[in-house]
Amino acid sequence: MKDIAELLKTTREEAGIEIEEVSKDLEISDILLKNIEEGKTGSFKDVFLLKEYISNYAKYLGLDEAKIINDFNEYLFEYTSKIPVKEIEKTIEIATKEKTEEAVNSPYTQEKVKSKKSAYILIYILISFLVILAIYWSINQITVDNKNAYVISYRK
After folding, report:
1. Contact by Cβ (8 Å): 1, 73
2. Using CA atoms, how far apart are residues 9 and 127, in angstroms rounded to an integer?
3. Rounded to 10 degrees, what is the CA torsion of 14, 18, 21, 22?
4. Residue 1 and residue 19: Cα distance in Å, rounded?
5. How far apart are CA 58 and CA 69, in angstroms?
6. CA torsion through residues 41, 43, 47, 49, sign
7. CA dihedral sign, ordered 126, 131, 135, 137
8. Tens digits of pLDDT across the chain (156 residues)
């Protein structure tokens, strides 16, 4: 990245262009441009945005954009391939922890407490059965009473 940064800076200086002018023309903050020229990739959160800035900057200065982007891609590959596996695992662990913490805080992702619906349904069915049984018994008693009343009135 240092080679890319130096190439961009020296090309700009040789052309006699101030960094503020580049900033205004490309609509990129002059601080970001200074970070690019100093090779400070750590100050960028998004690598793809950094790549776009470098590409636009190279085009602006009339440099071979494809070659610079290929160099940048090689730099990224070297940089990321040198990250220890423990660091990657640590990053993944932190990311999963944050996701679970977010999940706990969100009412949409919280595990719902299992309700006692099945117990309520069973009680409802039992009460319904008892009500139906009581109605049936009442109707049956009325018909039996009517039959007995008919029999009694017939005997008289």
Report:
1. no
2. 85
3. 50
4. 19
5. 9
6. negative
7. positive
8. 778 888 888 888 888 888 888 888 888 888 888 888 888 877 777 778 888 888 888 888 888 888 888 888 888 777 666 666 677 778 788 777 766 655 555 555 555 656 677 788 889 999 999 999 999 888 877 776 666 555 555 455
pLDDT value at position 112?
60
Q: What is the DSSP letter of 115?
A: P
Spatial separation of the C-alpha atoms in residues 81 and 74, rounded to whole Å: 10
pLDDT of residue 115: 65
- Please tell me the distance from the alpha carbon of residue 121 to that of residue 127, in angstroms, as a whole number: 10
Q: How far apart are CA 133 and CA 117, in angstroms?
A: 24
- Mapped onto helix, strand or coil, the DSSP state of residue 16 is coil
Which is nearest to 118 in space by CA: 126, 130, 110?
126
| Residue 51 amino acid letter | K
Q: Measured between alpha carbons, how far is 64 from 84 in angstroms, rounded to an integer?
A: 33
DSSP class of residue 108 equals T
| DSSP H helix total and E strand total for the chain | 7, 0
The amino acid at 69: I
